[in-house]
Amino acid sequence: MYLYNLTLQRPTAVFQSISGNFSGTKVVEILLNHGRALELLRYDEDGKIESILYTEVFGIIRSIIPFRLTSGTKDYIIVGSDSGRVVILEYNPLKNQFDKVHQETFGRTGCRRIIPGQYLAVDPKGRAFMIGAIEKQKLVYILNRDSTAKLTISSPLEAHKAHTIVFSMCGVDVGFENPIFATISVDYSDDGDLDDVQEQHKKKMLTFYELDLGLNNVVRKWSDEVDYSANIVMTVPGGTEGPGGVLICSENYIAYKNQGHPEKRAQIPRRMGTDPDKGLMIISHSSHKQKGMFFFLVQSEVGDLYKITLDYQGEIVNQVVISYFDTIPVANCITVLKNGFLFAASEFGNHGLYFFKGLGDNEDTLIEAEGQQWFEERGELKHLELTSSIGSLVPVLDYKVLDLVQEENPQMYALCGTSKNSSLKVLRYGLPVNQMAETPLPGVPSGIWTLPKTNLSPDEQQSDKFIIVSFVGTTSVLRIGDNIEEDHDSGILETTTTLLIRPLGQDAILQVYSNGIRHIKADKRINEWRAPGRKSVLHATSNQTQVVLALSGGELIYFELDQAGNLSEVMKKDMRRDISCIEISPIPKGRILSRFLAVSDWEGPVRVLSLDRDNCLSQVSMFDTDKVQIESLSIVDMPIQEAGVDNTRQNAQQHRGAAATLNIPSTLFLFIGLKNGVLKRAIIDSLTGELSDVRTRFLGRKPVRFFRIKVKGNNALLALSSRVWLNYSYQGKLEMTPLSIEPLDNASSFSSDQCSEGVVATVQNNLKIFTLDKLGENFNQISVPLQCSPKRFIIHPQTNYMVVLESETNYNTEDLNLTELNRKLAADNGNSNNDDQDDMEFDEKTNNKKNKKIYKPKAGKGMWRSFIRIMDPVSYQTLDLIQLDDNEAAFNLTTCTFANDTDIYLAVSAGVDVELNPKKFTASTINLYKFTDNGTKLQLVYKTEIEDICYALTAFQNRLAAGVGKSLRLFEMGKKKLLRKCETKSIPCTIVNIHTMGDRLVVGDIQESIHFVKYKRSENMLYVFADDTVPRYITSSTILDYDTVAGCDKFGNVFVVRLPQNVSEEVEEDPTGSKLRFETGLLNGAPHKLEHIAQFYVGDMVNTITKASLTYGGPEVLLYTTLTGAIGALVPFTSREDVDFFSTLEMQLRAEHPPLCGRDHLAYRSYYFPVKNVIDGDLCEQYLSLDPIKQRAIAEELSRSPAEVLKKLEDLRSQKLL
């Protein structure tokens, strides 16, 4: 078995965010650290985020920081990773990629505590940076320029200190004096064990390290004791911009410290009603500096933002001033941007971009009481406004692929989030759309177009003036303004069916109808051309200066716009067959006329005709469609570089909100839509008109029709079939993604003052206007809020209702009444008996839930609340919600049936007064519920006590199989409790999942991988007959066939193990079980061992793995999800030829395209176990980002052309996945 690993959904967790001018212009950009990838974002003045670049680094990114050389205009990026190297990256806007400027090796690979990379600090003047480890090692590198103004880096200077744990690091602003770096650390040299550090209450020290540029060494300049709870050190602007020094964040306090300056402390204000005895910590921070002012923005562990300013004179700080600013979701990192925005990378839930409505100056909202400053919590944001958000699935706790609503393709269901951010996410493959307007029409339209206010270059952004809707026998003209209303004074003929309307020349309008052409000039003068004889116009196509008509009988007539602005007939040609569709190519840059025309008749072949004067309307190439009738044609020029071709033609792409212009090569594509729902795409050579690189894709059951639109200022194409598909360029790649919208009939681009770039379309007798804001997202999400942290969900086998298990410890106490609140917290806040629904409201703008009362007191350790929810998967309505009582913590659930009973039951495992670490509980039970009212309600039957917590449940042969601690048991239904019928205690640690097939049970152990168990019904015995040879900390597993199991562990490994064929036959041929009874393995293991079929390291903790098909009737693949919100697939190969091709491609890319951060790709994918029989599809898809010379070289090694290599990559993804 060989597998192909491919990421379907990128990781959505953001561990760190930084900002800078990475393009070398004045545009502010955001760089996100996704753990294993880097993503560059831009935003416009309206706060709309656009992803510019996403790059896999094939390593683990530990830290990132920007820096700028003195008097420089461009920011570089320093990356600390698990490669044992420090890498400096530069963003190349011409190629839209990160270039590696420097790579310096200093240690071993891996995330080790003594290998630098965990911390980065930069001198504010960009002269040096420090990279530090958690323990001992710190290295300083000097940055400079050479004679050609290129960045240079020195050899490392050591600043090591043994037996020292570092907590935070930053650069100190000292102007142009010797650079200084500050660290917070603890010395444990007197202790023999790290575990004793906290117990011995060692001193935590703030240390300044000075880099002497003259002597070229690093010395410890100054050290001072700080609060033992200090966790963050922040740079204070110095020189002419501030007093210098640092701010120290600790529990309840923020202090200013500097060498030779007394400490200035300020207490962090607290919310009214919170426990004053519980400490408050700062978890993320950012700063903003401009001429004449600076401030800090920090966030506490409960989400409150505080603004920090300093009252200072010269270098003397008089006071640290802390004021409450606003409250947003808890963030891993916050970044204040230079032009009035704040980016918050949320720990759980969507990430947000906020606009500063105000800075909160001269605002006194704090109340002094009992020696503490308090503030009233706000129900909504006051100084910030959410302008844009990035969807996040973090963390994915359970995941299934099911078709519960009987759609064309299955849906993905994921349980995400924690506490009040919990939700059920329903993912459908398709680009999300934002519908802005919908209105009924008087009939069913036959076409729709828009006309701009002025006929400028098609590449320039401009607003539309008219929407023209054609009906049978009539045409309606709608003027676009503050309101859309009919216009009868446009000069457009309204008493006929319009075939085509396009802008023509500088200021004219072209209308084509069955009897001829209507040429409407700006002064309302009208020129008409009538079809000769009894012929009629069947099809028409045009651009700014050319018009081609197809008449009945197969005649083509070609017109050009002369210098006087009039249409003149150039040539006629009789094609001798009726024309089914025609399409003219767009005008290339620097030319007045286009060169090619695509024509097709009803017998199928597509002919490309030349429009040059010397061979006008003569055929230059042809494409055969095997006599399948063609529905439509389209020729589109897209900013895509053709594979393996040095394309010197440049197409300027202006990103809105950016001052810089990116030069991107362009390619001319011919799209062919067939009657059978198939799309074919080919590249047209811009010089000869030859067709090459043909691709095929099935879009739907209906004929394919094309409509050209604009997406992010670039040409794009809508392909309408039974689904709506969008072809567009994204980060240098040609993407083809369905839209999450009902099937459309007609469409056109739309632009107005309210909607700068959108689409106007018709659906039967309705007109819709929508926008495409989230390009690059493969899945459209529907979020259903849940009560608390979800655990598992299952599907009722008869009704298809979802049964969701939710369980949370140390929860927020919105639901607690006053009695319980007093009992657990000994504090009466007076307003805790509101229902949970009263504490929640929804933001209509973002469709996200927000809290009126945020972060109430916690219930305490060992306090749980658990719910069982029955949900309708169609309406997402909760049919029943049961809360478990007696402080029960629910862990797993399953549906089951029992012998001599036709009812379906729900079994739920739970524990009472559970503490997770160390493990404690007062009772453990399996609760049995009965479905009533057609599966919409639950009724408790009884609870069965067991001696250990049960983490795994499943149905097995009209019994219930349960993993009680390390015991595997089979239960039958009794009158008062479940009856234990069979048991084995041969599992080493704790059972976390169970799967069944036939008489076999496959058991996953929390530390000891997979075990195969055989049940002998005649003897009522369970025998463990096979286990794994290596320990694995199993998180999820699934059965592939009777002998094969796929699983994943908490370290990020995905694996496939199989029972040897001879062992499987031997077990099945043992009817009495006598061999199994007396066989014993070595070291208390099973007598037989599993074979390792496949092994692969993903890069994130893998939570779930399942076997499913993503398309109707498509092949089954392995799907897995990670804690960081990524969704990946393992696709089995069906031919040895494909295995050889992709393995060779992977090997070539390892050599020609090494990972960005210096990690060895083979070593990375073999992080814990050697990679086996799995090809890295994410690496293979890096082939497209290579320069043409390397593309051709690799293709030659594969005995193929670059286009054929790309076709193989594209076909594997589209045919077997999405």
From TrEMBL:
GO terms assigned for molecular function? nucleic acid binding
Q: What are the RSE1/DDB1/CPSF1 C-terminal domain coordinates in residue numbering?
A: 865-1184
Q: Name one GO biological process term.
A: mRNA processing
RSE1/DDB1/CPSF1 second beta-propeller domain boundaries: 435-772
Its cellular-component GO annotations read: spliceosomal complex
List the residue ranges of the region (Disordered).
827-851
Q: Which residues cross the membrane?
A: none
Q: What keywords sit in the KW lines?
A: mRNA processing, mRNA splicing, Nucleus, Spliceosome
Q: Where in the cell is it found?
A: Nucleus
Q: Which InterPro entries match?
A: Beta-prop_RSE1/DDB1/CPSF1_1st, Beta-prop_RSE1/DDB1/CPSF1_2nd, RSE1/DDB1/CFT1, RSE1/DDB1/CPSF1_C, WD40/YVTN_repeat-like_dom_sf, WD40_repeat_dom_sf
- Domain RSE1/DDB1/CPSF1 first beta-propeller, residue spans: 14-385
In terms of SUPFAM superfamilies, this protein maps to: WD40 repeat-like
Domain of life of the native organism: Eukaryota
The entry sums up its family as follows: Belongs to the RSE1 family.
PANTHER family referenced in this protein's UniProt entry, alphabetically: DNA REPAIR/RNA PROCESSING CPSF FAMILY
Q: What is this protein called?
A: CPSF domain-containing protein
Traced from the root, the source organism's taxonomic lineage reads: Eukaryota, Amoebozoa, Evosea, Eumycetozoa, Dictyostelia
